[in-house]
Design a protein that fits this description.
three-stranded mixed β-sheet; 3 strands; about 300 residues; mainly alpha; 11 helices; Rhopdopsin 7-helix transmembrane proteins
């Protein structure tokens, strides 16, 4: 390690799900299937939207960004997890651990911002339909996407940089199956006050503020839908945001459980399962949610399929 860090620890030991060889084999197959599903599904979404002019709208532009973030998140977590399950490699280097922290914080923070942006897009589409084309212009959409990625990058650079300044000179057993900021701070031999303050600030902004903004958007959306007199009109309006609402509900419920509930022995064990949900299961399910519940995507897929043969 560099002298600037004064770090004695050169690697960390990550926890495993189980020592049972049969369960390890089952988990290996499951996680490999989920990783393959996430990669193929999100890559298909990106390709389909890119090649289909009918899907070149703000909603699908943000969906491409979501698919990229999902690929980034699963690739940050699952390859190392599969290596541990299959090859029994339970250690990760200091540099590898910080790299995993960097990309994990980046993908999670950017996804929370992106879900808020997508909620705003659905708010404009349903509550301001006549002004949708004017408000959600391509310059604004591009600016919003750049802001999402930039704010996520700044946040992870600050938090990962602060972790890199800490001294790790004793215990190196991370109480998780991946490297994340809270788990690493517990192992530090130096004060972590600034780190904890920055994490709390990031949690409040990326978690609480964005959650409230998203809920506010859907509050206006629900109120607008209830004012529609015809049942068919209500169903049509709700169908335009149901997929996104389902993704938001799944993602926020798992993130809130992991980062905002008190930590105990039992909750830490169940927290590992919840972490799998938002880093693995959610990215694998998102393409299915947006394709199975979206007529435009299914129609574009049907048009593109014959052309590819």
């Amino acid at each position: 390690m560099s002298a600037g860090n004064q770090t004695a620890v050169v690697e960390f030991i990550l926890e495993d799900f189980s020592e049972d060889p049969h369960l390890r084999l089952l988990l290996s197959v499951l996680f490999f299937f989920l990783y393959l599903t996430a990669l193929v599904g999100n890559s298909l979404i990106i390709t389909l939207i890119t090649l289909s002019p009918s899907l070149h709208t703000p909603m699908y532009f943000f969906l491409v960004n979501l698919a990229i973030l999902d690929i980034l998140c699963t690739t940050t977590v699952l390859p190392k997890l599969l290596e541990r399950l299959v090859a029994r490699v339970d250690t990760i280097s200091y540099q590898g651990c910080l790299t995993q922290v960097f990309f994990l914080i980046w993908s999670l923070g950017a996804e929370l911002l992106l879900l808020t942006t997508m909620a705003f897009d659905r708010y404009v589409a349903i509550c301001q339909p006549l002004r949708y084309g004017t408000i959600m212009s391509w310059p604004l959409c591009t600016l919003l996407a750049v802001t999402v990625w930039t704010f996520g990058a700044v946040n992870t650079s600050v938090n990962t940089g602060l972790i890199a300044q800490l001294t790790f000179c004793g215990p190196n057993h991370v109480q998780h199956f991946l490297c994340e900021a809270p788990s690493l701070l517990l192992l530090s031999c130096s004060p972590t006050v600034i780190n904890n303050i920055m994490i709390i600030m990031a949690d409040v902004y990326f978690g609480v503020v964005n959650f409230l903004l998203t809920m506010a958007s859907y509050g206006y959306i629900v109120a607008s839908i209830l004012r529609i007199r015809s049942a068919s009109g209500k169903r049509r309006a709700f169908s335009t945001c149901s997929s996104h609402l389902l993704v938001v509900s799944l993602y926020y419920s798992t993130v809130i459980y992991t980062y905002f509930l008190p930590v105990s022995g039992a909750s830490m064990e169940s927290g590992k399962v919840v972490t799998v949900l938002y880093t693995t299961v959610s990215p694998a399910l998102n393409p299915l949610i947006y394709t199975l519940r979206n007529k435009d995507v299914k129609s574009a897929l049907q048009k593109l399929a014959p052309a590819s043969w």
